[in-house]
Amino acid sequence: MVTAEKSAEELAKERLARFETAINLGVPDRVPLWGLGVDIIAAYAGITQHDMYYNPEKAAMAIEKFARDFPCDYFPGVLLGLGGYVYSVALSGYDDLAMVGLIDGPMHDIIGEKFNKFPGREVGENATPQFLGGTFMYPEEYDELIEDPINFIAEKVVPRTSDNLSTPRKAMATWVKVGMELQRRTETSINFDDIARKLGYPIQPSGWAGAPLDIIGDFLRGFDQVMLDIYRYPDKVKKATESLCKLVIEGALESIKMGAKYINIPLHLNEYLSPKLYNEFYWPTLKEVILEIYKAGGKSMVFFEGQHEHHLETLLELPKGWGVAGFEKTDVVKAKELLKGHTCIMGGLPVSLLVSGTPETIDEYVKNLLEKVKLGGGFILASGVGSIPVEVPIENVTAIIEAVEKYGKY
């Protein structure tokens, strides 16, 4: 936290240097600790999950309280929304409307979209929001997607994702309301930069991208169907990923032009593909996205969901220092051994330990882990998931921070 000894500005510089040194494969003064929080923030502040997604004032209070009481090296800015990538694609070329792709609570209500469930709506007020995805494209439409993804998604897919967009008249009214909501969001949204600046956290502009096959699985064909499509229509799936890859790259490069240094890329299907299928259908276009971001001067922060050990060696095909590999269930010790001096590794704190452990077991775990992974730098300690669940005892969050201070110094 901000102390009399160090000003907020000094703390921000110190944390930024620590964070960027690790990303650039150097040895910082201490192992950086990624921001903790998200789901647990509301409970800690005594508000509901519904408040977090529908009440900016309460959410801002909760986020600031958590960030002040549990200081990390990277501001635990909260993405108070879920995925709606197809809407960003449909509005490609209208940069001022790009944020339509981030579905928050009010936007969810206006559009009536079917990808997500929000607290106080489809789930209880204290339930966390859930991304469901869905099937909104037929297999015989792959050719249309390949030929013209923007118009196909805008004219065919989007009307299927919401009853409020199902007819031209309904869509006109809905998009007018969306525009009004975007204006309201600009005026009342939480200013994470102000909170971060006040508490001594570095401000790092970032953007978003995705793996093209994930986009098909999440927003167009659905998880089950795309897994079958790989066998039923392999050539069409490959061509579709290549077509979408161009859009993903364009979006990422636009974010970099606007000042983003890091591009977040959360993955979904990686765990479910054999090495053969991963290398044939998933990795080629994901690799192209990462390479283009790197060439443009940005760095990718890729979150490898689930178990990724059987695909680790593919990362060696990327240039040294390309970005950060964040892992959910992958053994970060094995990852560090393979990728040391090449890729910055992030992760290491399993959710099971955070939920069921004690401050003593967490202290011992962090000590043993850091002894194995901190040598040579290039490591960031983080939870295996971006959202620490509400079941985690608060004393365990404190134990993580204290353990890093004790055992993370170089």
Notes on the protein architecture:
With 410 residues, the chain is an alpha/beta fold. The protein folds into 2 domains: 8-80 and 191-407, TIM Barrel (Alpha-Beta Barrel); 81-189, no CATH class. It is 51% helix and 9% strand. It starts with 7 loop residues before the first helix and ends with a helix.
Percentage of residues in strands: 5-15%
The arrangement of helices and strands along the chain is HHHHEHEHEEHHHHEHHHEHEEHEHHEH
Total count of domains? 2
Give the tally of β-strands.
Answer: 10
Task: Provide the CATH top-level class of the largest domain.
Answer: Alpha Beta
The count of helical stretches stands at 18
Q: From the coordinates shown, what is the CATH architecture of the largest domain?
A: Alpha-Beta Barrel
Please summarize the sheet with the most strands: 6 strands, parallel
Radius of gyration, taken over Cα atoms and rounded to an integer in Å:
21 Å
Q: Find the CATH topology of the largest domain.
A: TIM Barrel
| Secondary structure: helix percent | 40-55%
Strand pairing plus helix content: what structural class?
alpha/beta
> Uncertain segments of ≥5 residues (pLDDT<50)?
none
- What best-fitting shape do the alpha-carbon axes yield? globular
Please state the average pLDDT score: 93
Structure summary:
The protein has 410 residues and is of the alpha/beta class. The protein has helices at residues 8-23, 39-45, 49-54, 56-69, 85-90, 105-111, 142-147, 149-160, 168-188, 192-199, 212-220, 223-232, 234-257, 275-295, 332-339, 351-356, 359-373, 394-407, and strands spanning 82-83, 102-103, 116-117, 130-131, 206-208, 262-266, 299-304, 323-327, 344-349, 379-383. A six-stranded parallel β-sheet has the order 5-6-7-8-9-10. Strands 1-2 form a two-stranded antiparallel ribbon.
